[in-house]
Amino acid sequence: MSIKKKIAATIVVLGACTPIVAQESAVDSVMQHVTGKRLSIGGYGEVGYTRNFFSDHVSRYSQPENHKDDPSHGKFDIPHAVIYVGYDFGKGWTMGTEIEFEHGGTGIAYEKEDEEGGEWEQETEKGGEVELEQFWIQKSFAPWANIRLGHIVVPVGLNNAHHEPLNFFTVYRPEGENTIMPSTWHQTGVSFWGRHGDFRYEAQLLAGLNADNFTNTGWIHKGHKSPMEYDVANKFGVSLRLDNYSVPGLRMALSGYYGHSIGNSYPRNASGVDNEYKGKVIIGSFDFTFNRYNWIVRGQADYGYLSDAEQLKYVYNRLNSKSPFKHSAFVSKNAYCIGIEAGYDVFSNIETLRAQKQKMYVFGRYEAYDPYASKTKDTPYDYTSVKRIAAGVNYYPIPQIAVKAEYSQRILKKIYNNEPSVSLGIAYEGFFK
Length: 433
Fold this sequence. Notes:
The protein is about 10% helix and about 45% strand. By secondary structure, it is mainly beta. A 16-stranded antiparallel beta barrel has the order 1-3-4-7-8-9-10-11-12-13-14-15-16-17-18-19. Strand 7 and strand 8 form a beta hairpin. It is globular, with a radius of gyration of 23 Å.
């Protein structure tokens, strides 16, 4: 197989399996899977258990003094179980799909209720989501010029570009970016991307976010979702990302997003707030990963701005109590998150374990975030300001599997109760074909 054909085959596997930016040496790590095969199948998944040593009562923030000594509570979860499928049609044409089951998927069933005269009722059997996170067709002209059309990952921030479970130490995805931005952020649009020298770049044109879904506790986190059978595209957005690999073992990136969000909903209101205001969303992000000398260090900083935030409460769909959108709380003009984690492989000092490719990272993490960093119309939601510390271990018996354990604590403002927890998890990521 020629070098050009190997590169083209690598592109489809990378695209079907993760966003290209999600691996620091993706081409080298995936080449072993593209030995002339057109079909590629892979996936990743996580299972976690958490014991939370704080209250889960609905008024734990409005009446914190009443819930300081509430009992702990636990949960099992399958945050993500993902299947990748990619295919190389030849002549530079490839396709990729990613199907994700979040929290075990959903379950709805009909039941015959004997206690209600034999009526048939539809019951929700299980909460969760099933999503098509990627579905695209791509034409590759050269390693530096590729066009991708369809449903694609929006690689803004560290978490979206590197969301697979072996790309972070914590049992669950890092909280900051997972709170203020969609995660994984995926939308329908067109992308131009490529790699030249020490740089990888990507520019995307997307359907705009929907301000009806913005919230005080999650900022734009749900803005990419639609309750319709389609994504409304009254407005558009653009995203950009640039990664640099000039320093061995170090990847640094800048990414960002710009788009209008008010009025990007159905039905489109011809007057009032929906027509008068734009709801501009602007996000800037820097992230890096350093992987060398048996250390892995990752960090990011994100800042977001939303214009006309004080008007969102009065848009048409948020005033309609029957609409499937947030109806009451104000949304912040600004949101931010910063985070850094570092882990050292203690097994690197033990020759027999090093020869078996086993690893044990002892890590620590710190992050601070606030989806409601601006008090819109002087309305405070002070419990949204969070600092979080975590420490634990990641054990890799083989490179594709990690067993995780961590202790963490959310540190809130003094009026509230801090939120400590212990989590255990196991995760995998790899190719099956």
